[in-house]
Amino acid sequence: MDIDLILRRATLPDGRRDHDIAVAGGRIVGIAPGIPGPAGEEIDAAGQLVTPPFVDCHFHMDATLSLGHPRLNLSGTLLEGIALWGELKPLLTEEAVIARALRYCDLAVAQGLLAVRSHVDVCDDRLLAVDALLAVKKQVAPYLDLQLVAFPQDGYLRAPGAARNLERALDRGVEVVGGIPHFERTAEEGAESLRRLCRIAAERGLRVDIHCDETDDPLSRHVETLAAETVRHGLQGRVAGSHLTSMHSMDNYYVSKLLPLMAEAQLRVVANPLINIVLQGRHDSYPKRRGLTRVPEALAAGLTVAFGQDCCMDPWYSLGAADMLDVAHMGLHVAQMTGRDAMRACFAAVTTQAAAVMGLEDYGLHVGAHADLVLLQARDPIEAIRLRATRLAVIRRGRVVARTPARAAALALPGRPERVDPAAYAPEAAGA
Ligand code: FE2
After folding, report:
1. CATH code for 3-51+365-425?
2. How far apart are CA 296 and CA 161, in angstroms?
3. Superfamily of the domain at 54-358
4. Does the annotation count 214 as an active-site position?
5. Would the pTM of this model clear 0.90, i.e. be above it?
6. In 152-298, at which residue ranges do the beta strands (DSSP E only) sit?
7. Which of 85, 183, 241, 281 could potentially form a cystine with 288 if both were Cys, beta carbons 3.0 to 4.6 Å apart?
8. Tens-digit pLDDT profile for residues 40-72
């Protein structure tokens, strides 16, 4: 077999060291120490971490990079963000949405982010953003997997035309059913929206991803209905509850009943740490709640938990850089996941776990998987999060699609070394 590429002397996320990864025909064909050549190309990882690519399983690509259009979000709140998006929507053009999305995808690829699940707002009779992102999905397919969710931002039942538009979007090729039950007029209508949306998904054989209980209200309990409807329709493992921030504020006894229900439904849990920490707790004085869902407890219950980015320079969030290590870093801190295994779980939350949420096929570091890989300037996943490590090389289907020079800070202190390698100051943790 002709080998197209060998990455030599890689450290793998599970701690294996000095492994070579051989690639042929866009797939991984070998992972072992000392794979014999020749190969079309060889890259020396020199002991650095090679990982499957980053995956963002919760994003809004129709809004990204629109910061300041038509104005800035002055309060920084979720509700002003939704109102501002409502002002921007009629001004959108298909060309502008496509141009911004393509720019974002370039940024994502440079950061080793090669798969994105993006919600696309269907509360616009023109379905302009739907058509724009379907075009983008096709165009970026060689280098990035874009999965779209039909998202009724203004409420599936509350917004006129949303129910019809959601089905029109699915007819056009959007592949996941979205919803926002806490934004419907009443709790009962929220529950009804979930019943209808899960039925649509079951009938069409689609996955579901719900903006669910994105509130500090401890009595916002749509996740319970979502779990029940998932089981009723046999959708186990195919339904994601995104945000679930109300779980932060729920009564502990109730959560002790809820988590097993979620586990029974194999509900995927998607937290969005950058956004949850800035948008939740806004009605609190002090102490202020963090508003992140119960990540360690969900993991302990056996649930798949991923972290999404949600927003990047849009009506809701002025920051963001398509950097899933930033997302993992924030999630780690807000959830106080500082144990060794917990930190590794935060890395998994933006790689393997997020891939599981999206249902990506042939993702991962095993023979037969797509040769989608990222070489990081770090020795292990914990160091990658600590340093928000440079993506030295990003590989898609066995081809290098992005490179970034190694980072070393320059010093200007007399008598000191000229350059500082941040990794050189960190001891290697035993068994890391
Ligand atoms: Fe979102």
Report:
1. 2.30.40.10
2. 39
3. Metal-dependent hydrolases (3.20.20.140)
4. yes
5. yes
6. 176-179, 207-212, 239-243, 268-271
7. 281
8. 999 999 999 999 999 999 999 999 999 999 999
